[in-house]
Amino acid sequence: MTELGLYLSRKSVNRSDVARKTGLSKTRLSELSNNKKTKLKVDELYLIALALDVDPSEVMKEICKDLKLVKL
């Protein structure tokens, strides 16, 4: 499961509702939630945040929490 999938699970989100509100297909939302190789586009993240009625930066911080800058 991806970080987005975990986030949606913690929020007890109905994925069908999110798909309907965002215009994303259920298949695409499932791929974003379950396949770590699937890349999330910024417009998709923004639409998902709007559908959940949360600040997009909250979603981004949560799903990108493990990213770190390379020390030079």
UniProtKB/TrEMBL annotation:
Domain HTH cro/C1-type positions: 16-59
SUPFAM superfamilies: lambda repressor-like DNA-binding domains
Keywords: DNA-binding
Stored InterPro entries: Cro/C1-type_HTH, Lambda_DNA-bd_dom_sf
The keyword DNA-binding is assigned to this record: yes
GO molecular function, one term: DNA binding
Descriptive protein name: DNA-binding protein
Species classification: Bacteria, Pseudomonadati, Bacteroidota, Flavobacteriia, Flavobacteriales
